[in-house]
Design a protein that fits this description.
This is Beta-glucosidase. One of its GO terms (molecular function) is beta-glucosidase activity. Belongs to the glycosyl hydrolase 1 family. By secondary structure, this protein is an alpha/beta fold. The chain has one domain: Glycosidases (TIM Barrel, Alpha-Beta Barrel), CATH 3.20.20.80. It is built from 16 helices and 15 strands. The protein has an 8-stranded parallel β-barrel with strand order 1-2-3-4-5-7-10-13, surrounded by 5 helices. A hairpin with a 2-residue loop joins β11 and β12. The longest helix is centred in the middle third of the chain and has 25 residues. It is globular, with a radius of gyration of 21 Å. The structure holds 6-O-phosphono-beta-D-galactopyranose. The site of 6-O-phosphono-beta-D-galactopyranose has 15 residues, from loops.
């Protein structure tokens, strides 16, 4: 079987991780510009000041993408590049940059797939409480409208937010992302709710503009499975799914929060501050949302937790996806299992978990349109005789694309696959050491670009529409 004609083969990036030019051409400060410079927060103090200089080299990069045969490029817009202080004047030079990038994609027939928010919040908004402050909702909707009006004639695929769970949980529970708060549970749930409201309002605004494209949100897809059949572990896994998947997917796709979590939060005194109007808005939005994007890297293996934990403080290493963490409410913990395979950073490699998870989603949400908006392998790629031999990445992507194919056969409504990442870029907490790209960036040699083995492999997959997979 070949992948259907309307299935998009793509690859992704995010503004802070590739652009650089952090203070150029009128760009305002983002929370990451500030946070990454606090000692100890990132691997070896790395930051996105220069990143891989995509801001200046996007023409070269897009040309390489075209050569690879990429059908779509998922990138994000930096909010403080468009509106430097978050909710004031528009920076025309920021608009020019993205116009250039979008036009460059279109020149080669590459479909721009644009994320509005991939974590770089204008610092001025962070200082006023970030996502816990309802003013941020209105500022976001205004920013989204500016982008729709400036780019919507050419951009027909919009993602509002990337991975709400990550920037909220790491921002308010583990402290590994800005604003760096630890165990601020009430703020965590308030922030998630405000993001869902911002999403719903942005979708509403987009539909009012009648630009006839599609709009959705991207979530982490991290399905939880019990380590065995013991009842207490099965309950733990279900609890994990409710809190880490359904809490995020239900308000978007069903228009209401899962009752199980709502009741549990009430008992814990953690009900978010919400109004009837906001809850109604979420209800109304459920039918307007066009798709959901899934970022899948690994499942989680879960067991019941009996340790009493007062404060869940995690170091950078533990916040970066490695199992071995206790949930914020001490109900369950994630574990590594002996019979599983892991990457160098301790992430499980599990195409099976991907398929089982997709079936779980279909069961709960029906035929909603899906895109895989991120999937890939973080590795240190060997260089042999000047060739970047990233065979494990090829194997990883191959196995996951096979799952995508199988899922389509089973009737799961999957419309595209975006590998993470198109080019080696800055990993938020792991610096440049953890590579994901099809294109290598030589940090010792003027950030020169070079094609990896996977570049040629993916090109062939796209050309043959995955027939041999
Ligand atoms: C996702 C983010 C990406 C990217 C990826 C890999 O959560 O959306 O921006 O960073 O994870 O993560 P890491 O760089 O930690 O390996």
């Amino acid at each position: 079987m070949k992948f259907p004609k309307d299935f998009l083969f793509g690859a992704a990036s995010a503004a802070y991780q590739v652009e650089g030019a952090w203070d150029k051409d009128g760009k305002g400060l983002s929370n990451w510009d500030i946070f990454s410079k606090i000692p100890g927060k990132t691997f070896e103090g790395t930051n996105g000041d220069i990143a891989v200089d995509h801001y200046n080299r996007y023409k070269e990069d897009v040309k390489l993408m075209a050569e690879m045969g990429l059908e779509s490029y998922r990138f994000s817009i930096s909010w403080p590049r468009i509106i430097p202080d978050g909710n004031g004047k528009i920076n025309e030079m920021g608009i020019d940059f993205y116009n250039g990038l979008i036009d460059e994609c279109l020149k080669y027939g590459i479909v721009p797939f644009v994320t509005l928010y991939h974590w770089d919040l204008p610092q001025s908004l962070e200082e006023k409480g970030g996502w816990t402050n309802k003013e941020t909702i209105e500022a976001f909707v205004n920013y989204a409208e500016v982008c729709f009006k400036a780019f919507g004639d050419r951009v027909k695929h919009w993602i509002t937010f990337n991975e709400t769970i990550m920037f909220c949980k790491l921002g308010y529970i583990t402290g590994a992302h800005p604003p760096g708060k630890i165990n601020a549970q009430k703020e965590y749930f308030d922030a998630t709710h405000n993001v869902f409201v911002a999403h719903a309002k942005a979708v509403k605004k987009y539909k009012e503009l009648k630009q006839y494209g599609e709009i959705g949100i991207t979530h982490v897809f991290n399905p939880a499975f019990s380590v065995d059949d013991k009842e207490e572990n099965l309950i733990a896994a279900s609890h994990a799914n409710y809190y880490e998947t359904f809490w995020y997917y239900d308000p978007i796709l069903k228009g209401e929060y899962p009752e199980y979590v709502v009741n549990d939060l009430k008992n814990k005194g953690l009900t978010p501050y919400w109004t009837d109007d906001e809850l109604q808005l979420l209800k109304d939005n459920a039918e307007k949302n066009d798709f959901i994007g899934l970022n899948y890297y690994q499942p989680q293996r879960v067991e019941n937790n009996t340790e009493v934990v007062k404060i869940i403080e995690m170091d950078r290493e533990k916040s970066t996806g490695r199992p071995g963490n206790i949930s914020f409410d001490s109900v369950y913990k994630t574990v590594m299992m002996e019979d599983k395979t892991y990457t160098k950073w301790g992430w499980e490699i599990s195409p099976e978990g991907f398929l089982d998870g997709l079936r779980m989603l279909k069961e709960r949400y029906g035929d909603i349109k899906l895109y895989i908006t991120e999937n890939g392998l973080g590795d240190e790629d060997p260089i042999i005789d000047d060739v970047i031999v990233d065979v494990p990445r090829i194997k990883y992507i191959e196995a996951h694309l096979k799952v995508v194919k199988e899922a389509i056969k089973e009737g799961i409504n999957l419309k595209g696959y975006f590998a993470w990442s198109v080019i080696d870029l800055l990993s938020w907490l792991n610096g440049f050491k953890k590579q994901y790209g099809f294109i290598y960036v030589d940090h010792k040699n003027n950030l020169n670009r070079k094609k990896k083995l996977s570049f040629h492999w993916y090109k062939k997959i796209i050309e043959t529409r995955g027939e041999e997979l």
